Amino acid sequence: MVIGLIFLLFSIALPIALVVWAVRQFGSRTGSRGMDAHSIRRFFQYLLLFGLMVVAAVGLSDLLGMLFQKPSLAGDDNSTLARALTFSLFGIPMFVLVAAWSRRRLQQDPDEARSLGWAFYATVAPLTALVVAMTALHGLVSAALVDHRFDGSALTQLVVWFAVWLVHWTMASRMLDDDRRQGQLVLGSLIGLGTTIAGLVALLGASLDALLVDRASTLLVQQQQPLAQAAATVVVGVPVWVVYWLRNLSRARRTPLWFGCVLPVGVGGSLVLAVVGASVVLYQLLVWLIGEPASTQAAQHFEGAPTAGACVIVGAVSWWYHRQVFTGATPARMEVTRVYEYLMAGIALLAAAVGVTMVVVALVESLV
User: Fold this and answer.
1) Which of 68-77, 125-134, 335-344 is predicted with the least confidence, judged by mean pLDDT?
2) 31: phi > 0 → left, psi -120 to 50 → alpha, else beta; which?
3) By C-alpha distance, which of 178, 197, 142 is closest to 318?
4) What pTM was computed for the model?
Protein backbone atom coordinates (compact mmCIF):
# COMPACT_ATOMS: atom_id res chain seq x y z
CA MET A 1 0.00 0.00 0.00
CA VAL A 2 2.90 2.36 0.81
CA ILE A 3 4.49 1.75 -2.58
CA GLY A 4 1.19 2.39 -4.34
CA LEU A 5 0.72 5.59 -2.37
CA ILE A 6 4.20 6.82 -3.28
CA PHE A 7 3.60 6.01 -6.95
CA LEU A 8 0.27 7.83 -6.92
CA LEU A 9 1.75 10.94 -5.29
CA PHE A 10 4.62 10.93 -7.79
CA SER A 11 2.27 10.55 -10.75
CA ILE A 12 0.20 13.48 -9.48
CA ALA A 13 3.13 15.70 -8.52
CA LEU A 14 5.02 15.25 -11.79
CA PRO A 15 2.37 16.83 -14.07
CA ILE A 16 1.89 19.68 -11.56
CA ALA A 17 5.63 20.35 -11.53
CA LEU A 18 5.70 20.34 -15.32
CA VAL A 19 2.83 22.82 -15.43
CA VAL A 20 4.56 25.14 -12.96
CA TRP A 21 7.82 24.90 -14.86
CA ALA A 22 6.14 25.62 -18.20
CA VAL A 23 4.28 28.63 -16.82
CA ARG A 24 7.41 30.07 -15.24
CA GLN A 25 9.45 29.51 -18.37
CA PHE A 26 7.00 30.92 -20.89
CA GLY A 27 4.30 32.75 -18.94
CA SER A 28 6.22 36.01 -18.54
CA ARG A 29 7.09 36.29 -22.23
CA THR A 30 4.97 38.03 -24.79
CA GLY A 31 3.90 37.32 -28.35
CA SER A 32 3.82 33.82 -29.68
CA ARG A 33 5.83 32.51 -26.71
CA GLY A 34 3.02 33.68 -24.42
CA MET A 35 0.49 31.84 -26.51
CA ASP A 36 2.70 28.74 -26.39
CA ALA A 37 2.84 29.02 -22.61
CA HIS A 38 -0.97 29.12 -22.39
CA SER A 39 -1.23 26.11 -24.71
CA ILE A 40 1.30 24.12 -22.69
CA ARG A 41 -0.40 25.02 -19.43
CA ARG A 42 -3.84 24.06 -20.77
CA PHE A 43 -2.53 20.77 -22.13
CA PHE A 44 -1.10 19.65 -18.80
CA GLN A 45 -3.95 21.17 -16.81
CA TYR A 46 -6.76 19.34 -18.60
CA LEU A 47 -4.70 16.17 -18.96
CA LEU A 48 -4.17 16.23 -15.20
CA LEU A 49 -7.86 16.97 -14.64
CA PHE A 50 -8.86 14.03 -16.83
CA GLY A 51 -6.47 11.66 -15.06
CA LEU A 52 -7.68 12.75 -11.63
CA MET A 53 -11.27 12.30 -12.77
CA VAL A 54 -10.57 8.70 -13.77
CA VAL A 55 -8.65 7.98 -10.56
CA ALA A 56 -11.38 9.46 -8.35
CA ALA A 57 -14.21 7.66 -10.15
CA VAL A 58 -12.40 4.31 -10.15
CA GLY A 59 -11.54 4.61 -6.47
CA LEU A 60 -15.04 5.61 -5.42
CA SER A 61 -16.75 2.92 -7.50
CA ASP A 62 -14.38 0.21 -6.22
CA LEU A 63 -14.82 1.36 -2.64
CA LEU A 64 -18.61 1.37 -2.85
CA GLY A 65 -18.60 -1.91 -4.75
CA MET A 66 -16.75 -3.64 -1.93
CA LEU A 67 -19.79 -3.09 0.27
CA PHE A 68 -21.47 -5.84 -1.74
CA GLN A 69 -18.42 -8.12 -1.46
CA LYS A 70 -18.19 -8.79 2.27
CA PRO A 71 -16.29 -12.10 1.97
CA SER A 72 -13.45 -10.43 0.06
CA LEU A 73 -12.97 -7.84 2.84
CA ALA A 74 -12.21 -10.59 5.33
CA GLY A 75 -9.98 -12.51 2.95
CA ASP A 76 -6.30 -12.29 2.15
CA ASP A 77 -6.66 -10.12 -0.97
CA ASN A 78 -6.28 -6.57 0.32
CA SER A 79 -4.87 -5.04 -2.86
CA THR A 80 -8.29 -3.99 -4.13
CA LEU A 81 -9.15 -2.35 -0.83
CA ALA A 82 -5.79 -0.57 -0.68
CA ARG A 83 -6.17 0.73 -4.21
CA ALA A 84 -9.75 1.86 -3.62
CA LEU A 85 -8.82 3.72 -0.43
CA THR A 86 -5.76 5.32 -1.99
CA PHE A 87 -7.58 6.45 -5.10
CA SER A 88 -10.51 7.78 -3.08
CA LEU A 89 -8.57 9.58 -0.33
CA PHE A 90 -6.14 11.29 -2.68
CA GLY A 91 -7.91 11.30 -6.03
CA ILE A 92 -11.19 12.90 -4.99
CA PRO A 93 -9.71 15.92 -3.11
CA MET A 94 -7.12 16.53 -5.82
CA PHE A 95 -9.79 16.37 -8.52
CA VAL A 96 -12.00 18.81 -6.62
CA LEU A 97 -9.12 21.27 -6.21
CA VAL A 98 -8.01 21.13 -9.86
CA ALA A 99 -11.63 21.30 -11.04
CA ALA A 100 -12.29 24.38 -8.87
CA TRP A 101 -9.14 26.04 -10.19
CA SER A 102 -10.11 25.23 -13.79
CA ARG A 103 -13.62 26.56 -13.27
CA ARG A 104 -12.26 29.82 -11.89
CA ARG A 105 -10.04 30.27 -14.94
CA LEU A 106 -12.91 29.49 -17.27
CA GLN A 107 -15.02 32.16 -15.62
CA GLN A 108 -12.29 34.80 -15.54
CA ASP A 109 -10.71 34.28 -18.97
CA PRO A 110 -12.99 34.14 -22.05
CA ASP A 111 -10.16 32.68 -24.13
CA GLU A 112 -9.98 29.72 -21.76
CA ALA A 113 -13.52 28.63 -22.62
CA ARG A 114 -12.69 28.87 -26.36
CA SER A 115 -9.43 26.94 -26.08
CA LEU A 116 -8.79 23.61 -27.73
CA GLY A 117 -7.73 22.01 -24.45
CA TRP A 118 -11.03 22.75 -22.77
CA ALA A 119 -13.02 21.55 -25.78
CA PHE A 120 -10.97 18.34 -25.85
CA TYR A 121 -11.57 17.66 -22.15
CA ALA A 122 -15.29 18.49 -22.42
CA THR A 123 -15.51 15.92 -25.24
CA VAL A 124 -13.31 13.10 -23.99
CA ALA A 125 -14.37 13.10 -20.32
CA PRO A 126 -18.13 12.50 -20.85
CA LEU A 127 -17.47 9.93 -23.57
CA THR A 128 -15.11 8.01 -21.29
CA ALA A 129 -17.69 8.04 -18.51
CA LEU A 130 -20.34 6.99 -21.02
CA VAL A 131 -18.40 3.92 -22.20
CA VAL A 132 -17.64 2.77 -18.65
CA ALA A 133 -21.26 3.31 -17.58
CA MET A 134 -22.48 1.33 -20.59
CA THR A 135 -20.14 -1.53 -19.70
CA ALA A 136 -21.39 -1.51 -16.12
CA LEU A 137 -25.03 -1.46 -17.23
CA HIS A 138 -24.40 -4.38 -19.59
CA GLY A 139 -22.83 -6.36 -16.75
CA LEU A 140 -25.73 -5.54 -14.44
CA VAL A 141 -28.43 -6.52 -16.95
CA SER A 142 -26.52 -9.62 -18.10
CA ALA A 143 -26.12 -10.84 -14.52
CA ALA A 144 -29.85 -10.40 -13.93
CA LEU A 145 -30.95 -12.10 -17.17
CA VAL A 146 -28.29 -14.79 -17.53
CA ASP A 147 -27.35 -15.79 -13.98
CA HIS A 148 -30.45 -14.43 -12.20
CA ARG A 149 -28.30 -12.61 -9.65
CA PHE A 150 -27.72 -9.06 -8.50
CA ASP A 151 -24.29 -7.59 -9.33
CA GLY A 152 -23.70 -4.92 -6.69
CA SER A 153 -20.27 -3.96 -8.04
CA ALA A 154 -21.73 -3.25 -11.47
CA LEU A 155 -24.48 -1.17 -9.89
CA THR A 156 -22.08 1.02 -7.95
CA GLN A 157 -19.88 1.42 -11.01
CA LEU A 158 -22.93 2.41 -13.04
CA VAL A 159 -24.10 4.97 -10.47
CA VAL A 160 -20.69 6.61 -10.08
CA TRP A 161 -19.83 6.81 -13.77
CA PHE A 162 -23.35 7.87 -14.73
CA ALA A 163 -23.05 10.75 -12.26
CA VAL A 164 -19.68 11.67 -13.80
CA TRP A 165 -21.23 11.58 -17.28
CA LEU A 166 -24.24 13.64 -16.22
CA VAL A 167 -22.10 16.37 -14.65
CA HIS A 168 -19.82 16.63 -17.69
CA TRP A 169 -22.77 16.43 -20.10
CA THR A 170 -24.50 19.33 -18.36
CA MET A 171 -21.28 21.32 -18.16
CA ALA A 172 -20.48 20.81 -21.84
CA SER A 173 -24.00 21.76 -22.92
CA ARG A 174 -23.74 25.04 -21.00
CA MET A 175 -20.15 26.05 -21.76
CA LEU A 176 -19.63 24.85 -25.34
CA ASP A 177 -21.35 26.28 -28.39
CA ASP A 178 -23.25 24.00 -30.74
CA ASP A 179 -20.46 23.57 -33.28
CA ARG A 180 -17.78 22.73 -30.69
CA ARG A 181 -20.14 20.34 -28.93
CA GLN A 182 -21.03 18.49 -32.11
CA GLY A 183 -17.93 16.29 -31.92
CA GLN A 184 -19.15 14.74 -28.68
CA LEU A 185 -22.63 14.26 -30.13
CA VAL A 186 -21.28 12.55 -33.24
CA LEU A 187 -19.05 10.15 -31.31
CA GLY A 188 -21.79 9.38 -28.79
CA SER A 189 -24.29 8.78 -31.60
CA LEU A 190 -21.89 6.38 -33.31
CA ILE A 191 -21.33 4.50 -30.03
CA GLY A 192 -25.07 4.22 -29.45
CA LEU A 193 -25.82 3.25 -33.05
CA GLY A 194 -23.09 0.60 -33.19
CA THR A 195 -24.12 -0.93 -29.87
CA THR A 196 -27.81 -0.93 -30.81
CA ILE A 197 -27.22 -2.51 -34.23
CA ALA A 198 -24.95 -5.17 -32.74
CA GLY A 199 -27.54 -5.98 -30.09
CA LEU A 200 -30.43 -6.09 -32.55
CA VAL A 201 -28.51 -8.34 -34.95
CA ALA A 202 -27.60 -10.73 -32.14
CA LEU A 203 -31.13 -10.68 -30.68
CA LEU A 204 -32.87 -11.20 -34.02
CA GLY A 205 -30.34 -13.81 -35.11
CA ALA A 206 -30.77 -15.81 -31.90
CA SER A 207 -34.55 -15.57 -32.20
CA LEU A 208 -34.52 -16.78 -35.82
CA ASP A 209 -32.13 -19.54 -34.86
CA ALA A 210 -34.49 -20.68 -32.12
CA LEU A 211 -37.56 -20.53 -34.36
CA LEU A 212 -36.16 -22.01 -37.57
CA VAL A 213 -33.76 -24.59 -36.20
CA ASP A 214 -36.18 -25.52 -33.39
CA ARG A 215 -33.75 -25.84 -30.54
CA ALA A 216 -35.08 -23.12 -28.28
CA SER A 217 -34.73 -25.24 -25.16
CA THR A 218 -31.01 -25.76 -25.65
CA LEU A 219 -30.62 -22.11 -26.62
CA LEU A 220 -32.07 -20.89 -23.34
CA VAL A 221 -30.23 -23.26 -21.04
CA GLN A 222 -26.76 -23.13 -22.51
CA GLN A 223 -24.07 -21.20 -20.69
CA GLN A 224 -23.84 -18.17 -22.97
CA GLN A 225 -27.58 -17.62 -23.37
CA PRO A 226 -27.34 -15.44 -26.49
CA LEU A 227 -30.87 -14.08 -26.19
CA ALA A 228 -30.18 -12.59 -22.76
CA GLN A 229 -26.79 -11.22 -23.78
CA ALA A 230 -28.26 -9.64 -26.91
CA ALA A 231 -31.15 -8.15 -24.94
CA ALA A 232 -28.66 -6.60 -22.50
CA THR A 233 -26.75 -5.06 -25.41
CA VAL A 234 -29.94 -3.54 -26.81
CA VAL A 235 -30.88 -2.15 -23.39
CA VAL A 236 -27.47 -0.48 -23.20
CA GLY A 237 -27.35 0.91 -26.75
CA VAL A 238 -30.85 2.29 -27.31
CA PRO A 239 -30.84 4.97 -24.55
CA VAL A 240 -27.45 6.25 -25.71
CA TRP A 241 -28.63 6.50 -29.31
CA VAL A 242 -31.84 8.27 -28.25
CA VAL A 243 -30.04 10.84 -26.09
CA TYR A 244 -27.16 11.61 -28.43
CA TRP A 245 -28.80 11.28 -31.84
CA LEU A 246 -32.56 11.44 -31.63
CA ARG A 247 -32.79 14.27 -29.10
CA ASN A 248 -29.68 16.28 -30.01
CA LEU A 249 -27.64 15.55 -33.12
CA SER A 250 -30.60 14.96 -35.45
CA ARG A 251 -31.77 18.51 -34.68
CA ALA A 252 -28.32 20.10 -34.89
CA ARG A 253 -26.99 22.28 -37.69
CA ARG A 254 -26.09 20.40 -40.87
CA THR A 255 -22.32 20.69 -40.82
CA PRO A 256 -19.78 18.54 -42.72
CA LEU A 257 -19.28 16.58 -39.50
CA TRP A 258 -23.03 15.92 -39.34
CA PHE A 259 -23.10 14.65 -42.92
CA GLY A 260 -19.96 12.62 -42.21
CA CYS A 261 -21.90 10.78 -39.50
CA VAL A 262 -25.05 10.22 -41.56
CA LEU A 263 -23.54 9.34 -44.95
CA PRO A 264 -20.51 7.05 -44.49
CA VAL A 265 -21.72 5.36 -41.30
CA GLY A 266 -25.51 5.63 -41.24
CA VAL A 267 -26.18 5.13 -44.95
CA GLY A 268 -23.02 3.46 -46.22
CA GLY A 269 -22.31 1.23 -43.21
CA SER A 270 -25.91 0.04 -42.99
CA LEU A 271 -25.99 -0.79 -46.70
CA VAL A 272 -22.73 -2.73 -46.46
CA LEU A 273 -24.14 -4.68 -43.50
CA ALA A 274 -27.26 -5.59 -45.45
CA VAL A 275 -25.34 -6.53 -48.61
CA VAL A 276 -22.88 -8.74 -46.75
CA GLY A 277 -25.69 -10.49 -44.89
CA ALA A 278 -27.65 -11.07 -48.10
CA SER A 279 -24.54 -12.42 -49.82
CA VAL A 280 -23.96 -14.94 -47.03
CA VAL A 281 -27.58 -16.13 -47.06
CA LEU A 282 -27.66 -16.41 -50.86
CA TYR A 283 -24.34 -18.25 -50.93
CA GLN A 284 -25.46 -20.84 -48.38
CA LEU A 285 -28.75 -21.29 -50.22
CA LEU A 286 -27.08 -21.83 -53.61
CA VAL A 287 -24.58 -24.27 -52.15
CA TRP A 288 -27.45 -26.22 -50.58
CA LEU A 289 -29.47 -26.30 -53.83
CA ILE A 290 -26.89 -26.76 -56.60
CA GLY A 291 -23.57 -27.20 -54.83
CA GLU A 292 -21.93 -29.70 -52.55
CA PRO A 293 -22.67 -28.77 -48.92
CA ALA A 294 -20.23 -29.90 -46.27
CA SER A 295 -23.08 -31.34 -44.20
CA THR A 296 -26.26 -33.03 -45.35
CA GLN A 297 -28.15 -31.74 -42.31
CA ALA A 298 -29.86 -28.43 -42.92
CA ALA A 299 -29.39 -27.28 -39.30
CA GLN A 300 -25.63 -27.56 -39.55
CA HIS A 301 -25.35 -26.15 -43.06
CA PHE A 302 -27.49 -23.06 -42.34
CA GLU A 303 -26.00 -22.49 -38.90
CA GLY A 304 -24.88 -18.93 -39.70
CA ALA A 305 -27.86 -18.06 -41.89
CA PRO A 306 -30.09 -16.64 -39.08
CA THR A 307 -27.42 -14.13 -38.05
CA ALA A 308 -26.81 -13.19 -41.68
CA GLY A 309 -30.54 -12.76 -42.20
CA ALA A 310 -30.67 -10.54 -39.12
CA CYS A 311 -27.90 -8.43 -40.65
CA VAL A 312 -30.03 -8.01 -43.78
CA ILE A 313 -33.11 -6.89 -41.83
CA VAL A 314 -31.36 -4.59 -39.37
CA GLY A 315 -29.06 -3.15 -42.03
CA ALA A 316 -31.95 -2.47 -44.40
CA VAL A 317 -34.00 -0.73 -41.71
CA SER A 318 -31.03 1.36 -40.63
CA TRP A 319 -30.22 2.26 -44.25
CA TRP A 320 -33.82 3.30 -44.91
CA TYR A 321 -33.96 5.45 -41.77
CA HIS A 322 -30.68 7.26 -42.43
CA ARG A 323 -31.60 7.72 -46.07
CA GLN A 324 -34.84 9.40 -44.99
CA VAL A 325 -32.88 11.64 -42.62
CA PHE A 326 -30.44 12.54 -45.39
CA THR A 327 -33.21 13.22 -47.89
CA GLY A 328 -34.96 15.51 -45.42
CA ALA A 329 -31.74 17.40 -44.80
CA THR A 330 -31.09 17.99 -48.52
CA PRO A 331 -34.40 18.88 -50.22
CA ALA A 332 -32.58 20.30 -53.26
CA ARG A 333 -29.80 18.72 -55.28
CA MET A 334 -26.52 19.75 -53.69
CA GLU A 335 -22.90 18.68 -53.77
CA VAL A 336 -23.51 16.37 -50.80
CA THR A 337 -26.24 14.67 -52.86
CA ARG A 338 -23.64 13.76 -55.46
CA VAL A 339 -21.45 12.37 -52.69
CA TYR A 340 -24.37 10.17 -51.61
CA GLU A 341 -24.90 8.93 -55.19
CA TYR A 342 -21.19 8.18 -55.64
CA LEU A 343 -21.15 6.34 -52.30
CA MET A 344 -24.07 4.12 -53.30
CA ALA A 345 -22.55 3.48 -56.72
CA GLY A 346 -19.19 2.61 -55.16
CA ILE A 347 -20.72 0.10 -52.74
CA ALA A 348 -22.74 -1.50 -55.56
CA LEU A 349 -19.68 -1.66 -57.82
CA LEU A 350 -17.58 -3.24 -55.09
CA ALA A 351 -20.25 -5.84 -54.33
CA ALA A 352 -20.65 -6.66 -58.03
CA ALA A 353 -16.88 -6.97 -58.49
CA VAL A 354 -16.58 -9.35 -55.53
CA GLY A 355 -19.53 -11.40 -56.80
CA VAL A 356 -18.17 -11.68 -60.35
CA THR A 357 -14.75 -12.65 -59.01
CA MET A 358 -16.22 -15.44 -56.90
CA VAL A 359 -18.27 -16.72 -59.86
CA VAL A 360 -15.19 -16.80 -62.10
CA VAL A 361 -13.16 -18.60 -59.43
CA ALA A 362 -15.95 -21.14 -58.96
CA LEU A 363 -16.16 -21.77 -62.72
CA VAL A 364 -12.43 -22.28 -63.01
CA GLU A 365 -12.41 -24.69 -60.07
CA SER A 366 -15.30 -26.67 -61.54
CA LEU A 367 -13.57 -26.95 -64.94
CA VAL A 368 -10.24 -27.97 -63.43
Assistant:
1) 68-77
2) left
3) 197
4) 0.81
